[in-house]
Design goal:
Elements: H1 2-12, H2 16-51, E1 54-59, E2 62-67, E3 76-79, E4 83-84, E5 89-100, H3 102-105, E6 111-113, H4 120-123, E7 124-125, E8 130-140
Antiparallel strand pairs: 1-2, 1-3, 3-8, 4-8, 5-6, 5-7, 5-8
Helix pairs in contact: 1-2
Length: 153
């Protein structure tokens, strides 16, 4: 705004060469600003696409990978080593599953999760926990997604 006022003032006093220089500065500054903002927007979009969490689910009897925002209660999640649990779920089956709940509980060692025990704490996996070892299938119990219907099969 100050530079636009300067252009107007220099034109008013008849100093045309200075007005042209100031106008060129405004044009160059605007062009550089637009280019930098466009590049920044593209970089943010690329980073967002790279970090979008996905999860394996069983849908209509087939396994597929979906975005974690698209899961709904009743979906069967397939967890493997290194997966992050996208939402609270109850284990249907677990094979030597150790879950790192340190982000949630502060425990320093992974917790053994098994279906046989019947203990509610070992039957549930919480959102944000990591599965460092083992395999599991868990039925989602919280967090509604955008996808219509649910797998449940």
């Amino acid at each position: 705004m100050v530079l636009l006022a300067a252009v107007a003032l220099t034109l008013a006093i008849g100093d045309h060469p200075d007005a042209v220089v100031i106008a060129l500065v405004i044009a160059v500054n605007t062009t550089v600003g637009v280019i930098q903002e466009t590049r920044a927007d593209r970089a943010v979009a690329a980073l967002s696409a790279m970090t979008a969490p996905t999860v394996r689910v069983v849908c209509a009897g087939t396994e597929r990978v979906v975005s974690s925002v698209d899961i709904v209660p009743g979906d069967v999640l397939l967890l493997a080593e290194g997966d992050i649990v996208p939402a609270d779920a109850v284990l249907d089956r677990a094979d030597a599953l150790l879950v790192d709940e340190s982000m949630l509980t502060g425990e320093s060692v992974p917790v053994d999760k098994e279906v046989r025990s019947g203990c509610p704490d070992t039957l549930q996996v919480r959102a944000g926990a990591a599965a460092p070892v083992g395999l599991a299938a868990a039925r989602l119990i919280t967090r509604s997604g955008r996808r219509a219907g649910h797998a449940g099969d």
